[in-house]
TrEMBL record:
<dbReference type="InterPro" id="IPR003020">
    <property type="entry name" value="HCO3_transpt_euk"/>
</dbReference>
<protein>
    <recommendedName>
        <fullName>Bicarbonate transporter-like transmembrane domain-containing protein</fullName>
    </recommendedName>
</protein>
<feature type="transmembrane region" description="Helical">
    <location>
        <begin position="63"/>
        <end position="85"/>
    </location>
</feature>
<keyword id="KW-0472">Membrane</keyword>
<dbReference type="GO" id="GO:0051453">
    <property type="term" value="P:regulation of intracellular pH"/>
</dbReference>
<dbReference type="GO" id="GO:0005886">
    <property type="term" value="C:plasma membrane"/>
</dbReference>
<feature type="transmembrane region" description="Helical">
    <location>
        <begin position="125"/>
        <end position="145"/>
    </location>
</feature>
<feature type="transmembrane region" description="Helical">
    <location>
        <begin position="29"/>
        <end position="51"/>
    </location>
</feature>
<dbReference type="Pfam" id="PF00955">
    <property type="entry name" value="HCO3_cotransp"/>
</dbReference>
<feature type="transmembrane region" description="Helical">
    <location>
        <begin position="223"/>
        <end position="242"/>
    </location>
</feature>
<dbReference type="InterPro" id="IPR011531">
    <property type="entry name" value="HCO3_transpt-like_TM_dom"/>
</dbReference>
<dbReference type="GO" id="GO:0015701">
    <property type="term" value="P:bicarbonate transport"/>
</dbReference>
<feature type="domain" description="Bicarbonate transporter-like transmembrane">
    <location>
        <begin position="34"/>
        <end position="283"/>
    </location>
</feature>
<keyword id="KW-0812">Transmembrane</keyword>
<keyword id="KW-1133">Transmembrane helix</keyword>
<dbReference type="GO" id="GO:0005452">
    <property type="term" value="F:solute:inorganic anion antiporter activity"/>
</dbReference>
<dbReference type="GO" id="GO:0006820">
    <property type="term" value="P:monoatomic anion transport"/>
</dbReference>
Length: 298
């Protein structure tokens, strides 16, 4: 791949055709490099996840490597960009620098005397848009909390009323607090929270012979969630460092999450089973109500 050198129109005597061709060449080189780094991070994260499930190295070491696969992948992409692709000027995270953080503006209570000031819009339009946005946020947060509970807990929670407490905090307390302090309203982060909760799931390490591992419980606590929220809030102070992260790292992270999510879907597993000979089928709960092997001729 050719390295896109800095381009100035005067190098070519202001030839419009050459100028356009050079811009296209640069965009193609940047797009190809971004795609390469994204897939490189995807393969690295998948390799670390496979290492976590394997037998190489000590269990604690491979557990740490597999659990921190995404941060390690981000560091890998940043290092690749700084060492090999620095002249490509890849797209980076667009976050404010650390020296522009003004803590005094974090608490900005609204002026309640202007609640009826709708500006150029009508009251019906403003209230209608607010209602639509609130319904969308409610559905996202409700889906996030419900999916986390149904997917990971599976009625294994030992604390009663855990879902009602989460609903009260996320849908009643937080919106009121955000509105009074001038903070942005909370939105759903389903992928991140499901990945976090999946890490707290306790699996049966010694299942019966021929049976897959099953969920026997969950480490029920809110300390790790609080730590994640505090770290996200403190990330505004490292904006200057985050500006070194290429967008390719985010693309690779989303690809990795998508692949890992598809891997655990029952539909995908059944499709994979259909491509196997019936003698290689294993006893699994996903084969319940599935067509019997005797009726399939491969």
């Amino acid at each position: 791949m050719m390295i896109p050198t800095p381009f100035y129109p005067q190098h070519y005597g202001y030839n419009e055709d050459i100028y356009v061709a050079e811009r296209i060449r640069r965009k193609m080189a940047i797009a190809g490099t971004t795609l390469f780094l994204a897939f490189a991070m995807l393969n690295l994260c998948l390799a670390l996840a496979a290492l976590k499930r394997g037998n190489y190295l000590r269990r604690k070491l491979r557990t740490y490597l597999g659990s921190f696969s995404v941060p390690l992948g981000i560091f890998f992409v940043v290092a690749m960009d700084l060492i090999f692709f620095q002249r490509f000027n890849l797209d980076k995270l667009d976050v404010p620098p650390s020296d522009q953080v003004n803590v005094s503006l974090w608490i900005n209570p609204p002026n309640f005397s202007k609640l009826t000031d709708y500006g150029s819009g009508s009251a019906g339009l403003v209230h209608g848009l607010s209602f639509a946005i609130s319904i969308a946020l409610t559905l996202i947060i409700f889906t996030e909390v419900s999916l986390n509970g149904i997917t990971a807990l599976k009625n294994k929670a030992s604390k009663p009323g855990i879902f009602m407490a989460d609903y009260a905090i996320t849908m009643i307390l937080f919106p009121i607090l955000s509105g009074c302090l001038g903070w942005p309203f909370m939105s759903g982060a389903t992928v991140r929270t499901m990945s976090h909760l999946s890490g707290l799931v306790v699996m049966d390490r010694k299942p019966p012979p021929g049976m897959p591992q099953r969920i026997i419980g969950t480490i029920e606590q809110r300390l790790s969630t609080l730590i994640v929220g505090v770290l996200v809030a403190l990330s505004v102070f490292i904006g200057s460092a985050l500006r070194f992260i290429p967008m390719a790292a985010l693309y690779g992270m989303f690809l990795y999450m998508g692949v890992m999510g598809l891997r655990d879907l029952t539909f995908v597993k059944r499709c994979m089973i259909l491509m196997k000979r019936r003698k290689h089928w294993k006893v699994s709960s996903m084969l319940t109500h599935f067509i019997s092997p005797e009726r399939i001729y491969i």
